[in-house]
Amino acid sequence: MDIKTASALRRLRLVSAPEAVSFLLLLVCSVLKRTTDFNAVPVMGAIHGILFVLYVIFWLDAWSKAKWDFKRAALYFVLSVLPTGGFFADRKLKAEAESAVIASRARREGVVGA
């Protein structure tokens, strides 16, 4: 894996968990808005919107640099629109990056089958 691909995956990982947290907080704020006088939806909605846009930008970058097939790219996008999907995306991206690093080291050292 080259440095640009690793950086793209890292950026996507870094925004996936905060995006999931903001989504969950937005859902809580929505419930509180309807059941109490507390209304943090405009603020939380803006924060979540910014994080979601960043996720989509980083997702497109990772898709092009990691050369994912359509199925894998679609999976990461679907995970971004599920309330806890960002946590699963983070875990999958971490595993993918680690396996890519291992494969890259094996190729560099000339190990057969890597």
Automatic annotation (TrEMBL):
Residues 9-94 form the DUF3817 domain. InterPro entries: DUF3817_TM. The keyword Phosphoprotein does not apply. GO terms for cellular component: plasma membrane. It is found in: Cell membrane. Coiled coil: none annotated. The chain crosses the membrane at residues 12-33, 39-61. It comes from the Bacteria. It holds the Pfam family DUF3817. Keywords: Cell membrane, Membrane, Transmembrane, Transmembrane helix. It is a multi-pass membrane protein. This is DUF3817 domain-containing protein.
